[in-house]
Amino acid sequence: MLAVQGCVGLAAVDAGSPTHWQSQAALPMTIRTLDSDRQFSRLSSVKVAEQVHALHPGEPVSILALSSGGAAGAFGAGAVAGLTRSGSRPDFAVVTGVSVGALVAPFAFLGPAWDARLLDAFTSGAGDNLLQSRGLGVIFGSSLYRGGPLKELVDAYVSDAMIEAVAREAEKGRLLLVATTDVATGESVVWDLGSIARNGGPSMRTLFRDVLMASASVPGMFPPVMIRVRENGAPHDEAHVDGAATMPFFVPAAFAQTSSSARVGTQRTALYVIIDGPLDEAARSTRLTAHAIFSRSIRAGLRHMLLTTLELTAATAELHGATLQYSAVPVAYPRVDAFHFRADTMRLLFDYAYQCAQEGRLWTEFRRSDAGAIRSMPDPPKVACPADDALIGDIASR
Fold first, then answer.
1. Half-sphere exposure at residue 268, Cβ-oriented, CA atoms within 13 angstroms
2. Rounded to whole angstroms, what are the CA distances from 81 to 62, 85, 114, 209, 354?
3. Contact by Cβ (8 Å): 149, 129
4. CB-CB contact of 361 with 385 (8 Å)
5. What is the distance between the terminal CA atoms of the chain, rounded to a whole angstrom?
6. Mapping DSSP to helix (H, G, I), strand (E, B) and coil, where does residue 188 land?
7. ω into residue 248 within 30 of 0, thus cis?
């Protein structure tokens, strides 16, 4: 509660009125893009989606969405690298990320040449000292833990070479999108990191890093990240936190659009979602203390939001003629605490996802509601992979 109270003082402007909120809710998702004059503008996702599809005429557009999950982000990292090893990794035209998924997203976007750096980021022990208490500073501060270690971690991997590579891919029309949550408005903000890499100028690396860091800054755990934004000619500072505070992962609905001529062939838009965590929790004893009950309640709420988002994404894919494949950590896998950033734990999860992806047992496919779900079931399975999991498959057949 003290940490949340500390966040309140960082709000630069008041949230909009209820009328404003209702009008915004009816609009398509917008994407904050940095223009060549180094001013931000907000583009409708419908317009951006049209541009993406126009650059891939007659080709299937593949989109990867990476979810939140803390230390379980090692699952998404291992899955991406394992897809490379299997030879089945799609050439993603769009990659989106939230929270730890945002940290994996640039590596997934840049392709197999960056897999070694991805492995190092999640298994080298770089995050072992990520949680450094603020001590008595928590009483007047905005978080339980210092933001410096997270900043140093992100800064170590956001190199000039990475940003230059992102800029080159953005020139081809590919999109790298990351979500944060604006503390003042409580709304999601989707950033086009490719445009920042192309047009950021001298502050490009700082801005790129700060957006990634903000997306991973869990409210109350890490302090909000102040981002300087020049929009409509006037610069101002905004406080941003974890994108998972408002959505666990995202695929803009307009991006799932498939032309009517492509819906019966192999050119359908293909959505892939990697969920860094389980879709449910195994029943277990919960101590009847305020902390235990509060923690359990928060996890339950986040899990239901995750399932709702997945089901809405499936409905959108079916409506627009796209395919959807997804993966998640099976409930049977030993529980990974979201804030347990030890290298040994993350390496095990990375290797598990890597092996399952390498063996072609990562994905569960949503099909039309009247066709049921298709799941890969090797005989006999060597390990229980996501594609073999009954609960994950059951979600697809609902």
1. 18
2. 17, 7, 9, 23, 6
3. yes
4. yes
5. 38
6. strand
7. no
The answer for residues whose C-beta is within 8 angstroms of residue 313's C-beta and 6 or more apart is 65, 251, 271, 273, 324
Q: Tell me how far CA of residue 384 lies from CA of 179, 333, 337, 350, 392, in angstroms.
A: 32, 8, 20, 15, 12
Amino acid at 337: D
Query: Per residue in 261-294, pLDDT tens?
Result: 555 556 789 999 999 999 987 666 666 766 566 6
170, 197 in Cβ contact below 8 A? yes
Locate all alpha helices (DSSP H) within the chain, ordered by sequence.
2-8, 18-25, 45-54, 73-86, 100-110, 115-123, 148-157, 160-171, 193-199, 204-215, 290-320, 343-358, 390-396
Q: How far apart are CA 110 and CA 161, in angstroms?
A: 11
What does the alpha-carbon distance between residue 1 and residue 5 come to, in Å, rounded to a whole number?
6
Split at pLDDT 50, 70, 90, the class of 58 is confident
Given 3-state DSSP classes, what are the helix, strand and coil percentages for the chain, each rounded to the nearest 5? 45, 20, 35
Beta carbons of 29 and 45 less than 8 angstroms apart: yes
- Name the residue type at position 180: T
Query: Among residues 24, 25, 43, 23, which one has the least CA distance to residue 33?
Result: 43
Report how far Cα 145 is from the mean position of its chain's Cα atoms: 22
Q: pTM to 2 decimals? A: 0.86
